[in-house]
Amino acid sequence: MEYFKYRNEVNPGKGKMLVSEPYLADPNFERTLVLLCEHNDEGSFGFVLNKPSIARMGDVLEDLKGLDAPVYIGGPVQQDTLHFIHQCADLEGATEITPGVFWGGNFEGLLVNLDIQKVNVDDVKFFLGYSGWAAGQLEGELKTDSWIVSDRITPELIFETDYQEMWKKALRIMGGRFSVYSNYPADPRDN
Asked: What region, left, alpha or beta, does residue 54 occupy, with left being phi > 0 and alpha being psi -120 to 50 degrees?
């Protein structure tokens, strides 16, 4: 039955998004979206966009007590590292991942821009840890229908959509049979 074959024709790559299949059992990735920041012969690297931690930036870095910004769990790898994506095209050292979405850059410069309100805190997402795959690992997970690859990424989806709605919205944006998946219950016994 085609509705349970989640694979599509979009290949993973920098700036693409991984959408977990509706019943992925891994608690690190259940109903998540992962923005791929790197994908090459050596492996893949990205951040889970819709899994907030209980921490705020002021809790993570003592110098930032006044910064009331959510911190997301970027993935299960090296959760003692801090990363960020943003919409600041002119931030020194930033890498454009997809139009209007940048990764990293000069952290001190970002903090100054936040302090003088040149950048709105809603234009930045902070992450503890990241999601990583060794060479060929992600391709293996795609063959088992663990992920759907999407190239329909917008800054609005990443920065303005409530984290509880992101997974469903990403599937609806993809349209067709993917829209149907957005209505699948989290527990198939609830159907």
From this structure: alpha
